[in-house]
Amino acid sequence: MHEETLLRDLRRKLDQISRDEGVERITRVRIRVGALCHITPESLRSRWTALVANSAASGATLEVEAAVDPHDPRAQDVVLVDVAVTDPEPRHPA
């Protein structure tokens, strides 16, 4: 259950970024999976396509780093490290 919560939270963050940045497409997502996280990098990779289906991140490249420090304050988290987006279309004056 904790795994599903982490995945839903990640999807919400990506959706928020696309809205805030005004972009239609996220091209790359870099994530760090904490050493004590309930989801493995392999599980995240295998579920990535379904997780981002019908979103701005659909088709985005996923890069996953596995953290090894169990004492890190974020050791139980999936941390969104970086997101690359396409530039929004330039707005032309009417």
CATH T-level topology: hypothetical protein PF0899 fold
CATH-level-2 architecture: 2-Layer Sandwich
Sheet-strand content, in percent, reads: 15-25%
Q: What would CATH call the class?
A: Alpha Beta
- What spatial order of strands do you see in the largest sheet? 2-1-3
Please count the helical segments: 2
* Secondary structure tally: strands: 3
Euclidean distance between termini CA atoms: 50 Å
Regions with pLDDT < 50 over 5+ consecutive residues? none
Helix content: 25-40%
Q: Strand pairing plus helix content: what structural class? A: alpha+beta
User: Please, how many domains?
Assistant: 1
Sketch the major β-sheet: 3 strands, mixed
What does this structure look like?
- The chain is α+β, with helices and mostly antiparallel strands and 94 residues long.
- It has one domain: hypothetical protein PF0899 fold.
- The protein is built from 2 helices and 3 strands; from the N terminus they run H-E-H-E-E.
- It has helices at residues 2-21, 41-52, and strands at 26-33, 61-66, 78-85.
- Strands 2-1-3 form a 3-stranded mixed sheet, with helices on one face.
- Helix 2 (41-52) links the parallel strand 1 and strand 2.
- The longest helix is centred in the N-terminal third of the chain and has 20 residues, at 2-21.
Provide a brief overview of the structure.
It contains two helices and three strands; from the N terminus they run H-E-H-E-E. It is α+β, with helices and mostly antiparallel strands and 94 residues long.
